Amino acid sequence: MKIIDIIEKKKHGHALNEEEIKYFIDGVTKGTIEDYQISSLLMAIYFRGMNTDETVYLTKYMAYSGEVLNLEDISNDITDKHSTGGVGDKITLMFLPIIASAGLYAAKLSGRGLGHTGGTIDKLESIPGFKTDLSIEEFKTKVKEHKTAIAAQTMSLAPADGKLYALRDVTSTVDIIPLIASSVVSKKIASGANHIILDVKYGSGAFIKTPEDAEKLSKIMVETGKRLGRNISAVISSMQEPLGRAIGNSVEIQEVIEFLKGNMESDLKEVTYMLCSQAFEKSGKILNKEEAYKYIDELIQSGKALEKFKEIIKSQSGDERIINDYSLLPQAKIKYEVKTDKTGFVSNIDALKVAKACKNLGAGREKKTDTIDYSAGIYLTKKTQDEVHSGDTIAILYTNKETALNEAEELVKSAFEITNTKPQAKSLIYKVIN
To answer: Which pTM was predicted?
Structure first.
């Protein structure tokens, strides 16, 4: 078998068989196929696509290209959650303590932020002392002892995906559904959980721009996961606007804590409760959505979910005092208020523009090796449906880069659409795919 023949076959639009895809992934993993040949096949896939069988084969061999976690010695009932990325997306940090405080096991390996999307690991590392670089054994021990743990993705899991993603990034072949699906699902399979819940975003602040494309992606991911033996579902939700009010790292940790104290924004509540209810349904703990929502209320109102978050922080060497003292989190030297010169109602806040402003302030990175400022961020004092008057503060910028303020302010101002009439409230949940 030769890679040139596989490239030629896909170039002409023919489906690759399992043996050919295994040969390709083996070559990627072992380095026996040149980068330019890998890139050529990726481009052929980009233009010719892949059918469901091909996507399943690709996902399977990517998942098993390295170490696959075996969590059966902990439980046969472990949940993992994955978001396709967004702006102000801190849902994982509410999701884990909620379901763990309910007695469910949750094992979560996450990534760092890149481009305009924030990384869960970056947010956690803004907590003084918090350790995300766990060995596999450390990770499993913490899941067993505390019901949950969250760690940085290890390079030993699905290494073929890491190599392919790096090449997709520089060859403009990222946004193709079969490649996105195989990348996401292979990492989730390698992470060892048997229940997988996907939070698939669409809109300005997401990689997928329309709900229709998000549905296509969700269906292929769910079908692929099921065919590879996982109990999987996808919740499709809007990322047209930032989630919650905080965008950044330490500012988002504060919003997570406030949520777990019961002070929650409606958009964060809608998505978090839906994802948690899916976890309860998959585990068989609660099968009724209405009952699940009542139970989540109880876990928050009783303080159990907050206590579990505190336990997670402490178990991973973080300073749990931040729960009641936000001054222990990284603090920016500059706090700048953005004011509007318009009067009316906020009708939309462009997530992508806000994300770019946040990155300019120091909260994001262009390359994985870039350093970020954990104290940098944005807090939206006004959200959609809020009434505003000329001179009102619509956002607060936090940064240590004074030179970044002007551009960030203009981006935030342009992100706010203000109209004469109050817009109707819209659900963020588009559809659930099971």
So the answer is: 0.92
